[in-house]
Amino acid sequence: MNDRVLYDYWRSSASYRVRIALAIKGLDYTAKPVDLRSGAQSGVGFTMLNPQGLVPLLIDGDVAINQSLAIIEWLEETHPEPSLLPGDATARARIRAAALTIVADVHPINNLRVLKYLKSELGQEQEAIDTWGRHWIELGLSALEEIAEGSPGPFLFGAQVTLADVCLVPQMYNARRLQADVARFPKLGNIDKRLNGLKAFQQARPERQPGADQ
Ligand SMILES: N[C@@H](CCC(=O)N[C@@H](CS)C(=O)NCC(=O)O)C(=O)O
User: What is the pLDDT of residues 106-127, one digit of tens each?
Assistant: First the structure.
C-alpha cells in the first residue's frame, strides 16, 4: 500500500478538491472510501482517525491532516510545484478569498449533516431543503462570476490553475447535482469546462473513484 492514504467519498466535494490537488502535483495515493450514505463517517473506525467525522482525511506517513484546505495548503508547502498559490502576497490572498467563498461560505451550510438536520430535526420537506441548497450555491457563484468576468482567462485567476479553480470545479459539480441555475454564470461555466478538460481534473472526477455509483 502507498504511504499516502486519502480517506474520501466519491461524491464529497471537499474530497474532490483534495483529489484534484494531489493529481495536479502528481502525487500517488491509496484511496480509502468512507461510505457517507451508510454513515461510516460516524463509526468508531473512522472517528478514531478524524474525531470530526468528516472526509477528507489525508494520512501521509506519520502525518494525518483533515480539512480540505489545510490538506491542500500542506501539499502546497511540501510539494510547491506546480504552485496552486502563485504570485505575490496580494495575489495569493485573492485566490484564497475566492476559494473560501466556496469552502467557508457555501459548502458548510449544504453539507450532508446540515441537510439531514433540516429534515430530521426541523421537519423540513425535501423540496425546501433543495431550495435552501440552491440559494446558497447561487449566491456564492454570483460573487465568483464577477471574479471570472475580471479574469483574462482561461482560468479564474488568469493563465495558471490555482486553489480557487480546485475549489470551483467540485462546487459546480454540486450545483448541477442540485439543479441550481448554473446558466446564470456563463463565465464560470466556461472556466469549469476548460478545467474539466485537464487530465488532473479528469482523474479526480467523482464517477472515476472506487465505490462510485455506475
Ligand atoms: N470543511 C471541511 C468539510 C468536510 C465535509 O463537510 N465533508 C463532508 C463531505 S463533502 C462530509 O464528510 N460529510 C459527512 C456528514 O455530513 O456526515 C473540509 O473542507 O474538509
Answer: 999 999 999 999 999 999 999 9
